[in-house]
Amino acid sequence: MQLSPRSIFRRPFRVRAVRDPLAGFGRRPESGFTMMELLVVLGILALLAGLAIVNVNGIFGGAQTQTAQLFVRETLKTPLFAYNLRMGGYPSTAEGLNALITPPPDKADRWGTTPYLTEPKVPLDPWGEPYQYENPGKHNKGGIVPYDLWSKGPDKISGTEDDVGNWDSSSSLAAPK
């Protein structure tokens, strides 16, 4: 059989089918995933999400304690020290940390023109409770820092082992009551 240009166009052009790459898996290329496959994938995703949610509390729980430690040991150290330099002493227990924001009535003339903290109120600890302040402190007696500053911790009860304070934790584990 001779091929001429005309005979090429008269004959139907047939393409040989290429072997289906998915034929061994029991489906045709145009078909989607089965319901069972979708359920397995969703189950695996739900399992991974559940594990992530359970572990998030452990990650952020440690971060809350570290945040409270940083606040009581470092963040308030500078404003309290500046107050001490200007006023001649640290705020009393009755004046508390609010003395860093608003001048105590009997010390308004020496207090200065700007507050010692930039926030309009004393920040709360990571558990939403106010920080505790006592001067003179029961843990820091006669040291460079005579006051105790602490957070009640996750249980929100002062005087328990989970309190986070500005004192050396090896000397005492509980905050003053």
List the helices and strands and how they pair.
Layout lengths: L4 H6 L24 H41 L1 H11 L20 H4 L20 E3 L13 E4 L12 E2 L12
Antiparallel strand pairs: 1-2, 2-3
Order of helices and strands: HHHHEEE
Largest sheet: 3 strands, antiparallel
Number of domains: 1
Distance between the termini: 109 Å
What's the name of the CATH homologous superfamily?
Glycoprotein, Type 4 Pilin
Question: What is the percentage of strand-forming residues?
Answer: 5-15%
The largest sheet has its strands arranged as 1-2-3
Instruction: Give the overall average pLDDT.
Output: 76
| Helix-strand makeup class | mainly alpha
Shape: elongated
Strand count:
3
Oligomer: single chain
Highest-level CATH class? Alpha Beta
CATH-derived architecture = 2-Layer Sandwich
Low-confidence stretches are 171-177
Look up the CATH topology.
Answer: Glycoprotein, Type 4 Pilin
